Amino acid sequence: MKLAPRPFALLVASGLGLLAPIVAAQVAPAPAAQPAPQTAPAPTTPATATPAPSAAAAPALPAEAWTPPPLQPFVATYDALYKGKPAGDARMDVVHTGGDQWRVDLGVHGRSGFASILGLNIEQSTVFTVQDGRYVPQSQSTVKKAVFFGKKVTGVYDWKQGVARWDGDLKKDRQAPIPLQPGDQSALLLNLSLMRDAQPGKTMTYRFVDVGRVREHVYRAADQTETVQVGDISYDALRVSRTNGGRNETILWIANGVPTPVRILQREDGEDRIDLRLTEYQGA
Q1: For residue 181, what is the DSSP state?
Q2: Domain assignments of the chain as residue spans, ordered by start
Q3: Does the N-terminal or the C-terminal CB of the chain have fewer CB atoms within 10 Å?
Q4: Which of 191, 212, 217, 206 shows the shortest CA–CA distance to 278?
Q5: What's the CA gap between 230 and 237, in Å, rounded?
Q6: Poorest-confidence range of 91-100, 164-173, 243-252?
Q7: Is there a contact between 29 and 141 (Cβ–Cβ < 8 Å)?
Q8: Contact present, 26 and 212 (Cβ < 8 Å)
Q9: Which residues pair with 79 in a beta bridge?
């Protein structure tokens, strides 16, 4: 009946990182100041009074010509639900820091249950470059803050040496160097790469390398778009699902013209667990 602070905050952070493995220590430098969001996401169809559909209930529509969003600065905010109840919010920022270098930041705030009482917040950040259209991580950091504790982790993707390393509040075996491979992604970069790569009917495979762990993530985009209700707005969106997550399902919906997923859903043993719904975003 009660919301445990650790599952809520970590799972929401994982949700916006497309449910990367949950770790004991997480951290990030404070993101650069951004202008206040002022642009609401543009609907593709009029808003209706029906509740948001479950992951399996949305009607299919013919797939439209799909245009991946270009990489651009934006600020997006999400409402977070835990088992269908409001639990907090999250904000994602993409910042162009100059030349071929960018940064993606994520902040998660628990505002209900024990997460709120403990003042639990998580901030994550990845600095990356764009090389031949690929997003190449350069450094990663995570910070977990609460009233009675705090944990920090920082990592470097050293492409000259061909290894990634993490330091901070994590187990010794997570601090061992990890050999890098072309195309390796951090948790936050997975989000941007899926936005770039998804096409109706396409299967996408990524190697996740973050906080001392390596995992293969396989996603498949639906053959057709479907109507997804998010708050007062309905979208004609493409569903993208992770296919190798075992009992844990990860599903996200992306819409033409929106630079970030409009909804991200985690289901466990067939039941909704974490549900992130876009409330607004501001583009460049």
Answers
A1: -
A2: 5-282
A3: N
A4: 191
A5: 11
A6: 243-252
A7: yes
A8: no
A9: 89, 277
Judged against a pLDDT cut of 80, whether residue 216 lies above it is answered with yes
Tokens (6 digits) for 234: 């309905």
Tokens of 188: 């936050």
CA dist 212 → 95, 157, 164 (Å): 25, 11, 8
Q: Tell me how many degrees the CA angle 70-251-9 measures, rounded to the nearest 5.
A: 95
Residue-level length of the chain: 284
Provide the terminal-to-terminal Cα distance of the chain, rounded to the nearest Å.
Answer: 41
The DSSP output letter for 47 is -
Angle at 227 between CA 225 and CA 231, to 5 degrees: 135
266 has a pLDDT exceeding 50:
yes
CA 44 vs CA 78, 169, 237: distances in Å = 19, 45, 9
Residue 188: which of 15, 10, 17 has the closest Cα? 17
Angstrom distance (rounded) from CA 117 to CA 114: 5
Q: What is the pLDDT of residues 47-104, one digit of tens each?
A: 333 333 444 444 444 445 778 888 999 999 999 888 888 888 999 999 999 999 999 9
The string of DSSP codes covering 87-119 is EEEEEEEEEEEETTEEEEEEEEEE-SHHHHHTT
Q: Which two tokens stand for residue 164?
A: 């990634």
